[in-house]
Amino acid sequence: MKRIALVTDSTADLTEEVKKDFDIHVIPLKVRFGVQEYSDGELTSEDFYRRLMEDKILPKTSQPTPEEFSCLYSKLLEEYQEIISVHISSALSGTFNAAYLAKEKFKERIHLVDSKTISLGAGLMVMEVARNIKEGQDTEWILENIKKARKNIETLFTLNTLEYLQKGGRIGRVQGFMGSLLNIKPIIRVGDDGVYQTYGKAHSQKKALDSVVQAYQDLTKGRKPIRLVVAHGAAHKAGTYLKEALEYAFQLQTTVFTQVGPVIGVHTGPGTVGAAIQFE
């Protein structure tokens, strides 16, 4: 029997290559356009953003049910002794709570981690756990290590508009200015408590992207950056600009460059560009 299975949810925005290389099991959230419901991944990012911009009604999202988590956990525990399950910030989604309810059936064989972040920020945590498992570390060591890793992961992104964050009810502490009306691009940080916070603002997307780079330089605080991941929502050119600017600033190659998936995209909208950096 294998030792430790690794589970996350689809909001970690991991590429198929990463999931395969690290043997990561992903439970999908869902997005619904009217009566049509799709599991995250069924709808390509390209199709999703096209529909998001064309449809007048904002799609809805939903987390996995405790029953869906229980089904996945049961299947994995036929092959593995234990499971480490890392999920999107509990302050932004009910996914972690659903996993917690499912865990009760399996007790000490399931170990839950609230990433207190989103998208590729959570993805960095998942990949850290995956490396630890491959190294042969035990569960107790891994859980302690991932707590330390979270303190050294910074996730920042900029939005083209606040419209989707407001409509989706995920505005958090991103307030204080009429960004949509003034065409201001907010720079948002996922705080240590897993809630969105306004870190800055700019009057154009390019200035916002430059501000993200500067923000990371400010947040370094003498730490050494060791991993960089970048994601965008239907904004490949802007995403490439941020990727290259961060690589130059930190002399670090990007580990993952991808599109933000549909579930996160519902709340951030097209034109979103962000990154996460892991320090040591």
TrEMBL record:
It comes from the Bacteria. SUPFAM superfamilies: DAK1/DegV-like. Keywords: Lipid-binding. Pfam families: DegV. InterPro entries: DegV, DegV_C, DegV_domain_contain. Gene3D superfamilies: 3.30.1180.10, 3.40.50.10170. PANTHER family: DEGV DOMAIN-CONTAINING PROTEIN DR_1986-RELATED, FATTY ACID-BINDING PROTEIN TM_1468. This is DegV family protein. It comes from Desulfosporosinus nitroreducens.
